[in-house]
Amino acid sequence: MTRAAAEDRDVGRSGAPDKAPQKTAAEARAARTRLLLEAPIAATLLRLAAPNVLAMFATAMMSIAEGAFAGQMGIAALAGLAIVFPFVMLTQMLSAGAMGGAISAAVARALGAKDPNRAGRLVAAAWVIAALAALFSLLIVLLFGRLVFSALSSDQAAVEAALDYALVFFPGCILVWLCHSSLSIIRGSGDMMRPSLVLLLVALASIPLAGGFGLGWGPLPALGMQGLALGPILAHGLGALFAIGYLVCGRGGITVRVDRMRASHFMEILRVGVIASLNAVQTVLTIIIMVGLVGRYGEAALAGYGLGARLEFLMIPIVFGMGAAMTAMVGANIGAGNRSRALKVGWTGSLLAAAIVGAIGISVALVPSLWLDLFLQREEAAVWAAGAGYFHIVAPFYALFAVGLAFYFASQGAGRMLWPVTASVLRMIVAIGGAVLLTGTTDLGIDGVFIAIAAGQCSYGLFTMAAIYVSKWR
User: Fold this and answer.
1) What pLDDT digit, counting tens, does each position of 383-397 carry?
2) Among candidates 425, 457, 472, which has minimal Cα distance to 279?
3) Which residues, 6+ apart, have CB-to-CB distance to 328 below 8 Å?
4) Angle 446-471/263-295 helices, nearest 10 degrees?
5) pLDDT digits (tens, 9 = 90+) for 280-311
C-alpha cells in the first residue's frame, strides 16, 4: 500500500461517523462492487451495458438530428458540420471515454481495494482536471480554430459555418466535461443505470433545443449553426447539475473529500487518462486528415464523407456503452488482485461489442440508404454517391474497429494503455500513409482514401487483439 493510500484509510477511520443515509448508500455501493468481482461475466456485462447502450443510441439520435437540422440549412452548413464535428467528438471522447474512463477506473480500483476515502478524494481531483481540460480546449479553438478549419476546406462558407458552431460549443464545453466526469465517478461505483438515464435525458433534451435554437422553432430565435451548438451545451449543463448534486449529497455512497489531497490523487487519473487521451487524439487526427484529403475532391465529396464519418464516430459511443461497464468491472477486479477474471471480462466484452457494431456495419454496407436517406434527397447525387462509396468499402470492417476500441476501455480499467495507444498509432500510419499512396499512385480517387481507412481499422483491431493475448496486461 502506498503512503498516500494508507493515509486515505487512516483518515477514514478517525473521521466522524457517516450519516445514516450515507451509510445506506455506502452499503449499496459495496454490494455493487461485489457484483463486479463475483457475478457471472457475460450476464453482468450485458446487464450493466444495457442502460449504457440505450443512452448511447439516444446520443446517436441526437447526432442524426443535428445532421438533419444542418441539412435544412444547406450544403455549406452540412460541410461546415463535417469540418467541426471531429473536434466536437474529440471533446466527447476525452471527457466521457479517455479521461472519463480513467476517472471511472481509478474510482473502481480504489473501491475494489476497499479504500472509499481515496475514492472520495479522486472525485474532487476529477472535477479539477475536467475544468482545466475544458479551459485548454477553449484556448486552442480561440487561437487556432480559423486556421485549422481553413486548412481543411477552401470553401469559405463551410469554414464560417464551422466557426459559428465552434465559438458557441467550446466556451460552453466545461459543462460537457463536468457532466461526463461526474457520471464517470458514479459508474466507477458500479452504478450504470443512473448515468445512463442522465445521458438519455441529456440526449433527448438536446434534440429540441438544437432544432429550436438552430431553426427558430416557435418563439425561439433562429441562430443557425450557433443554435445547433447551444442545444447540447444547455442539455449537458442540466446533466452536470444533477450529477454533481447527487455526488455532493452522498447519494452515490462516496463522500467527496478535499482534505489531505495530494498529487497522487491527480496522478491516479492522469497516468491513464493522458495516455488514453493520446489514443482519442490520434483517432480524431486521422479523421481530420482524411477530411483534408477528401476535401480536395470538392464540397459534395466532403459532405458525403462527413455523413459516413459521422456514423463511424457514432460507433464510439455505442462501444462506450459496453466499454463503460468493462472499465468498471476490469478496474474492480484489478484492484482486488484478480487479473485472470479481468482478462475474461475484456475478451467477453470486446466480442459482444464487435457483434453489435459489426451488424450495423454490414447493414449500411449492403443498404447505404438506411443512413444516407436520413439526411439527403436522392437528387443530391454527388453527395449520396460519396457517402455510399464510403459505406461499401469501410463499413464491413466496423467489427474490428469495435474490438480495438472495446479493449481500449478495458485497458483503462487495467491501467495498461501501452498496447491500445500503439494500435491507434498503427491505425493512423496505415490510414494516412495508405491514402496518400493510393491517391498519389493510382486512379482510385476518393475510393483510395476509403480503402486506406478500412485498412487502418483492420490493423487497429487485429494488432490490439494480438497484443492483449500476448501481454495479458502485465
Assistant:
1) 888 889 999 999 999
2) 425
3) 36, 48, 104, 105, 108, 187, 188, 190, 192, 413
4) 150
5) 788 778 877 887 888 788 778 888 888 888 78
